[in-house]
From TrEMBL, chain A:
This is ABC transporter permease. It is a multi-pass membrane protein. One of its GO terms (cellular component) is plasma membrane. Its main location: membrane. The chain crosses the membrane at residues 90-112, 119-142, 162-181, 210-229, 250-278, 290-308. InterPro entries: ABC_transp_permease. The keyword 4Fe-4S does not apply. The keyword Zinc does not apply.
Automatic annotation (TrEMBL), chain B:
CDD domains: TM_PBP1_transp_AraH_like. Keywords: Cell inner membrane, Cell membrane, Membrane, Transmembrane, Transmembrane helix, Transport. It is found in: Cell membrane. This is Autoinducer 2 import system permease protein LsrD. Signal peptide: none annotated. GO terms for molecular function: transmembrane transporter activity.
Amino acid sequence: MTSFLRSREAILAAAILALLVLISSRFPAFVEPGNLARVFTDTSPLILLALGQTVVILTRCIDLSVAANLALTGMVCAMLNAAYPGVPVAVILILALGMGAVMGMINGLMVWKLKIPPIVVTLGTMTIYRGLIFVLSGGAWVNAHEMSAAFTGFPRVDILGLPVLAWIAILVTGLFFLGIARTPLGRAFYAVGGNPHAAVYTGIDVGRTQFMAFTISGMLAGLTGYLWVARYSVAYVDIAGGFELEVVAACVIGGISIAGGAGTILGTLLGALFLGIVKNALPVVDISPFWQLAISGTAIIVAVAFNSRSGRSKGRIILKRAEGHA
Amino acid sequence: MTDIADHQQAPRRIPDRLQGPGARLLKSWELLLFLVAVAIFTANSFASPYFLNAWNLSDATFNFTEKAMIAFAMALLIIAGEIDLSVASIIALCSTAMGAAVQYGAGTPELVLIGLVTGLACGAFNAVLVTKMGLPSIVVTIGTMSLFRGISYIVLGDGAYRGYPAEFAYFGQGYVFWVISFEFVLFALLAVLYYVLLHRTNFGRMVYAIGNNATAASFSGIRVARVKFILFLLTGLMSGIAAICLTSRLGSTRPSIAFGWELEVVTMVVLGGVSILGGSGSIPGVVIAAFVMGLVTFGLGLLNVPGIVMSIFIGLLLIGVIALPRLWAMWRH
């Protein structure tokens, strides 16, 4: 328990609590359960993507293509729904998961088999996936009136006071908590990131583990793609533009070491919530939303400076030896 | 037999060309890239009757000159094993600072000075965080990328600065001689300067040494932190210069100026044969890559291909030029 109190998760949780207290002292309405639930729901897409990004970063990689993957999958789902309104949501969910996973696999295969540095691969696929949206849609928007009620309604269906979108985020977070601690793959993510050489000697295929991480990240991006488009009832080329950096930011603030092998699911969750609360609180406390970018930038720098102090000797950067020597 | 040959070959590898199994192919990287450039040039001149026109070609250079200026400094930084993703945001902040100064009646010399100093200050900020505090540059510069542009957004919101003095327009719109623009001359001059710096000075050798093995470099008496500090300063300075050119060319400043350029600059550097893992690369490679990217975007533009579709080509080019030699090497084994 004392070790938890000194951990960065505890400090981050305390920072979030302090933030909430500070806001509530002037604007008590912000911390009402109903509003907090709304903030959580609004942060759910970020949580989902950040969880996927976490396992990628744990294996010393980075996935900059998640936002483009999200947007492409979202557009395909929206266009499918506009063309065939009868297709059930379950099919669309499977399609979104599958499409996202395939895009993640493409990243993963290039990292695994061709040993191309992850930052180069995902920089490339980021522009390719984003460009494909334009090729598919011709630059046109898919608007609310073209989507079926079932399609747009699904993420908003209310279960026990929370919309499905929030429940999915909770469910996936739970799966990650279990998966990362209780499955061989979950432990392999840490092993690969912590010491790729040692991982090889213990029989872990470094490349394959990184491939799995990219697949998971892609799958979640795809799922979020459908949920995003359905929630906002619109799909166009630029949706979630630049979101990949917010996702990486959530991980970094949550204490995921960019050098790989260090960090927790709880940390990522808190990192995402921190950004989500800041984003939602700004308009409430009457600060121009234009401050948000600078605030999250400062938060990233403070967080990484703080992380490096609490966890020394984790200083190898992701660019240098990202693919290990397997 | 081949094993023995490999072993004999290994010690003779020059450190800055050390690239594993693809070494031989990579040695001719600039040649390969040059052939790609020639092919694109030829294809373009067949595809569009408007391509082979001095003024059109001159216009095309504006597609890459500003980005290439940053790419030179970025190449050195990446060779040294670091990266700066905040360059586009530095442009935004420099441009905002210059725009704000205009409102107080600053003249052209003051504007240039403000642009350069702001760029240097941003570079120094990154440098301190990376070299003094020992933080990973990729995270630091993702942070400062948000911070610098964030400051621009705080200052400008959804507004814009205009009203730059008439002489200020020369940097981005002026021509030195016939179709040769000021920007192109500056680009060529900087290319030569960076070529000399990287390939003909001690400093350049230090950059390679650090990128190949920072610990060994440190034990050889190279002040690693200081070299990296200078490289971040240079990258900031080049972003300041690019900001002056771009602001002058556009004649206005919005906080979204140069959005997404950091990725194009990195793409240009990697396309130019600089290893993202550090330790190898050359300035001629980056110069040719700049032309390739400029020609692709301009040629496709003449064919009415929308910008976002061009980015697919750039993305494919980036992955393709790196993947193909590796596929080739795999296929041979």
